[in-house]
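$ ./design --mode recover --in tokens.txt
reading tokens...
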């Protein structure tokens, strides 16, 4: 029996490794879509040994380059294999203003526009029963979308990494809800996973207040395996495959207010993002 295929971005990171381990252990063929190939190959060899699954491969993708995203998607389409699971896990929280070759603030590209384009281009390879999971964050609740500043600088005003990160997670949450509605008739399931505060490479110590933040939040910080649990449940659990368009925390759906279910900027966000990626669609 041919193995089903899973694509996981950022599969070489803390949570990405845990998600890959779980999916590979469940018997899936896994493509680790990563930008750090040497680290990804190390993790691949480790996971193949641990899980006994030899069908794990590494493919390059840089979500800060829409050309790279399109190139990865094109290779997948050329392979022609059905994708059963797509895990948009990769993320970043930039510590300074960096503009990509596409004119996007880098956090916005990696956390939102890149995953948006990747998902849109891989949809033709998905069928009824396929699942898409987007890794969001509880910080979506403090996010706001100021157009066109959101795409170009992450926010209106000067660079501030936490609000920009929050804005991208709000955008990804709204994308999850909108996409779920658009593909529901095709039987494709789309959900968002909030991992909580997790000890990963995103937590850095570059600002004066970071050590204080670390002390205050340390009791609430989860391990990568704990943080990955919600995403894993959405990818693999039978019950999770019966719901779509939900935000999930600690392996359970979390009710969203009308503010998000019918967000006043959701349609505009979709339209503006489509314009941004139209060259590659």
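writing sequence...
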């Amino acid at each position: 029996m041919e193995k089903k295929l899973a694509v996981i971005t950022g599969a070489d990171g803390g949570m990405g490794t845990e998600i890959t381990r779980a999916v590979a252990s469940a018997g899936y063929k896994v493509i680790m879509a990563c930008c750090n190939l040497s680290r990804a190959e190390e993790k691949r060899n480790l996971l193949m040994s641990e899980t006994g699954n030899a069908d794990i491969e590494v493919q390059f993708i840089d979500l800060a380059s829409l050309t790279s995203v399109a190139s990865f998607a094109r290779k997948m389409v050329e392979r022609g294999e059905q994708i059963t699971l797509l895990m948009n896990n990769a993320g970043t929280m930039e510590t300074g203003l960096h503009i990509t070759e596409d004119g996007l603030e880098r956090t916005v590209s990696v956390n939102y526009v890149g995953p948006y384009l990747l998902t849109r281009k891989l949809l033709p390879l998905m069928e009824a029963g396929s699942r898409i999971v987007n890794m969001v964050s509880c910080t979506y609740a403090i996010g706001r979308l100021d157009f066109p500043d959101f795409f170009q600088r992450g926010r209106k005003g000067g660079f501030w990494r936490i609000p920009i990160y929050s804005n991208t997670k709000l955008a990804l949450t709204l994308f999850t809800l909108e996409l779920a509605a658009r593909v529901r008739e095709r039987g494709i399931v789309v959900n968002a996973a909030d991992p909580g505060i997790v000890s990963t490479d995103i937590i850095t110590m570059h600002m004066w207040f970071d050590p204080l933040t670390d002390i205050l939040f340390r009791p609430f910080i989860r391990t990568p395996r704990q943080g990955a649990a919600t995403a894993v449940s959405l990818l693999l659990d039978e019950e999770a495959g019966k719901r779509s368009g939900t935000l999930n925390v600690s392996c359970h759906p979390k009710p969203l207010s009308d503010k998000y279910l019918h967000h006043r900027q959701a349609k505009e966000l979709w339209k503006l993002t489509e314009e941004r990626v139209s060259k590659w669609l």
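exit 0
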